[in-house]
């Protein structure tokens, strides 16, 4: 599957989209309204990949158009991968083995444009156990 999906709106910085709240005396993190709104918008716009539920290795090619140079590309990637899981485009972001990301500035039309491509032949290494390490 290789189709370009466009999501309009600037992705929020994942690191700045949580606030500390108290639940029954314990600190916790909660999403800000800005993050919730962008996630809902992403879900509504993501028709190309919604419910694809990719359960194999994939690569993500993504162009992010911010309104200014101030935003960080890496934080946008975290938000996008989380949204791809939420709309069931991917089963889990742990299947992502490659990301090709580019940052652009478009003050009039902030957006992301991305494709997801499944990848065959990814070499995996066996998991070492404590027994393997220490006998």
Count up the helices. 3
Going across the major beta sheet, what is the strand order? 1-6-4-5
Profile the largest sheet. 4 strands, mixed
Count the E strands: 6
Oligomer classification: single chain
Radius of gyration: 17 Å
- Low-confidence segments: none
Binned strand content: 25-35%
Q: Element order, helices and strands?
A: EEEHEHEEH
Which word captures the global form?
globular
Mean pLDDT over the residues: 86
Provide the structure class. alpha+beta
Distance between the termini: 45 Å
Helix content: 10-25%
Structure commentary:
The chain has 3 helices and 6 strands; from the N terminus they run βββαβαββα. It has 135 residues and is an alpha+beta fold. The strands form 2 sheets. The chain has a 4-stranded mixed β-sheet with strand order 1-6-4-5, covered by helices on one side. A hairpin with a 2-residue loop joins strand 2 (18-23) and strand 3 (26-31). The chain is globular, with a radius of gyration of 17 Å. The model has no long low-confidence stretch (mean pLDDT 86).
Which terms would index this structure?
globular; 135 residues; 3 helices; four-stranded mixed β-sheet; 32% strand; 6 strands; alpha+beta
Topology:
Blueprint: E1 5-8, E2 18-23, E3 26-31, H1 33-45, E4 58-66, H2 73-86, E5 96-105, E6 111-118, H3 130-134
Parallel strand pairs: 4-5
Antiparallel strand pairs: 1-6, 2-3, 4-6
């Amino acid at each position: 599957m290789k189709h370009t999906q466009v999501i309009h709106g600037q992705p929020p910085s994942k690191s700045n989209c949580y606030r500390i709240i108290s639940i029954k005396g314990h600190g916790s993190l909660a999403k800000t309204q800005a993050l919730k709104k962008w996630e809902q918008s992403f879900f509504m716009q993501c028709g190309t990949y919604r419910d694809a539920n990719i359960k194999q290795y994939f690569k993500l090619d993504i162009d992010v158009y911010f309104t200014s140079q101030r935003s960080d590309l890496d934080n946008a990637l975290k938000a996008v991968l989380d949204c791809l899981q939420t709309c069931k485009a991917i089963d889990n972001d742990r299947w992502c083995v490659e990301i090709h990301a580019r940052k652009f500035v478009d003050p009039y039309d902030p957006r992301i444009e991305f494709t997801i491509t499944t990848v065959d032949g990814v070499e995996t290494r066996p998991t070492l156990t404590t027994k393997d390490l220490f006998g």
